[in-house]
């Protein structure tokens, strides 16, 4: 009898974490490495949020809270959804978890039965398919390409839906492509979903506030109120407020689903960190200046990276609407030979050779379900990005 669960054979470790760890190991060994794999802002958490956490510690707010979030934080989340998204939720429709990832995982664990299918537009965040597999469901990728700016169309969505489809996981702006869907594009997709009442929508709105003019963010239940009763609108403080390590995610949705997710959480992690919840409360209710300030920096970095990568031999890099990633296509480099003599047959080959030759760590596109591409995170300094892109240009130019 095997000791480890059979379900583990269905999943693989996170490629983004693996790349980040490899870059750290090479740096520790003395190699000059620039890591462009990490999916987190390089800015510090705003001071007023840190102050709220310190005050919570001093006030003794170090005990258990309600399993799925303290009441005052749930109330603030309700206010946030109403203020920014035009969505009305009551506290009983809100869940707070240890990061956005746990929100998604709880929802899948609470709803998946064997044979259930979950539609996932590709490229996708690396964890989506594996979470579906762990929950006993079947991930079904909806393939896109650079020709559609890595976005699905109503026709692609409609063709992918079957009687077994339970969820569509929808991420805009996207990790890894940064692609954001306009209201008009969203309306086309929600019109399709209205024809299929058995399909629920799980949105991942984590990059809501990292968007660049003239793009304006919208979420599916906001665009089509008819989807409200079968949408789980997921978000968190990680990206918007540079709070990745604080681990607070949240969602609003139908009360029965939220209650079921709470049951999962009650028997796994129980409540999120009490101090982190107080910090998240300060983030949502306090000054919002940081969001606009960081957006200016991210947009400047985006424009720098897109410009330099499009000057690299064989790369095509779309200009994303949001997040802090670009997703260049390297089709023209497949079949070329690296200075080491290695033939570039896949985007993983490209990423490995780039790391070995130039010391730049990126994540290969196959990990996100769309090849041949790679992801660059531009959540680092302008100077570092300029150097990294110069190295990528040099490497691409060296391929024969």
From TrEMBL:
Belongs to the class-I pyridoxal-phosphate-dependent aminotransferase family. Its EC number is 2.6.1.-. It comes from the Bacteria. Homodimer. One of its GO terms (molecular function) is pyridoxal phosphate binding. It is an enzyme of class 2 (transferase). Keywords: Aminotransferase, Pyridoxal phosphate, Transferase. This is Aminotransferase. It catalyses: L-aspartate + 2-oxoglutarate = oxaloacetate + L-glutamate. Residues 31-392 form the Aminotransferase class I/classII large domain. Its cofactor is pyridoxal 5'-phosphate. Pfam families: Aminotran_1_2. InterPro entries: Aminotransferase_I/II_large, AspAT/PAT-like, NHTrfase_class1_PyrdxlP-BS, PyrdxlP-dep_Trfase, PyrdxlP-dep_Trfase_major, PyrdxlP-dep_Trfase_small. The keyword Transferase applies. One of its GO terms (biological process) is amino acid metabolic process.
